[in-house]
Task: structure prediction
Amino acid sequence: MRTGTAVRKLVVAFGAYVLVLTALAAWRWHIWTYGTDTGTFTQVIADAFGGFTDGPEQGTHFRFHWAPLLATLWPLVAATRSGLALQIVQPVLIGLTAFPLYGIARRYVDEGRAFAYASLALLYPPLIAVAFTEFHEIAFYPALALGLVWAADRARWGWFALFSLLGALVREEACIVLGIVGLALAAIGLLRRHAIAPRRFPDGGLLVGVPPEPERLVLAGFFLTFINAAALAVYGDVVLAHVGPWQPSRFYDYPFAHGPANVITALLAHPALLPQIATLGRATYVLEALIPLAFLPLLSRWSLLALPGFAAVLLSSDPIAWRMGSHYAAIWCPWLLLGALGALVLRRVALRWYQAALALCIIVLLVANPMHVAHYVRPVYPHADAARALALVPQNAHLVTHDEWFAHIAGDHPNATVFFCPYVDYVVYADDYPSAYYQDDIVPELVRERAGGQLQVVARFGHVTAYRRRPDAGARIGDCITPGNVHYRSLGASLRGAR
Result:
């Protein structure tokens, strides 16, 4: 293959990847099937220089995640005022993962094989699902993670420093993983500083245990750990001390411990507790991660870097974290891809292993696609009447509406939310919306408030009604409700408790 041909092919493959996912995003936007998170991040980024606030989280996003890097998307959201822009930029960010993977592979194999191995990043089902789902800040992470390895392998220390700084601004669990990666790189630099290059790779390389500049790798690894530890310290000791406790701790609630640190401590101190989290769902999640790569990651020590990310996901008490197709997979995906690459580089029958992984990726996408495309490309509810009703709501109103409708109006309504809280002053709902939570919890409250005169009909279009609501006396923005979250009050208690 001529020099540069593989890179051009990778650019074309990346373009096709982005084009297909952009088309799907445009269709989903057209039929209103994006949910709360798309709207939430639209509001967060639109307020990047005012506190990162949004309606559903009832304040700053920093109560939930450390994500300063989101501010880089402010020009895009400010210009478009639409969540669709985020749904298009997400596959771009995820697709970029293929380029550092190619750069790493190219040190050890020819252009053709480097392209083939890098293409797995564009076909790996768990990672494509991250690109397809609702936008999250973790989309920045996979390309940055592999970019760090590429920079270390090529002794590009300026790039390494840049990727380190950017990686420390993605999300708090990314800081933890990258801090551990930094220690691993420093250890390799120390332990392999006198390593002799194997015959197959006379120039050595990080992937085969012969780092090009081991002394500098030690310093770079410690720098990566330090910068991420510093980011965590700023988040925990400064930011959270100011905005309140870390809300996602509820994802780690068990009868024996509460919060991630306490759960880990309890499991280490009492291994007999492990069966409580050793569930079939978690086991199948791991299999769904390994099968598309033909179990290649199990043949490489580099896959050990995926363990902290897997722990963050699998220790969650909320099954949504370990449901394949969610954004949480982004924290471990790059390291499994790196492990697969490490195995392919060292296998003498690498082509067969690659072909097996390629075939399995395609089979999974066709048979058990974690994107769940068939579900999301079907309309949830006709939206013409919803658009007419929502157009009547003032932009600064504290509006509550259905999840999918919220995603569409979040860019123009900074105070909109999906939770029926005491302080909301506009309500837009469809009487027959297909949601059990809405029918069981919201509808009875609407009936009660209409009977009491607290809700006044502004307009009705078909089954969609826009209401003007009198907020509860003394109501203020703060903890309200999250469906299924036992740490929040029920709808009735939340509303009537403020009266």
In short: Residues 360 and 366 are 10 Å apart (CA to CA). Residues 482-499 have pLDDT under 50 and may be disordered. The chain has two domains: 5-375, 384-497.
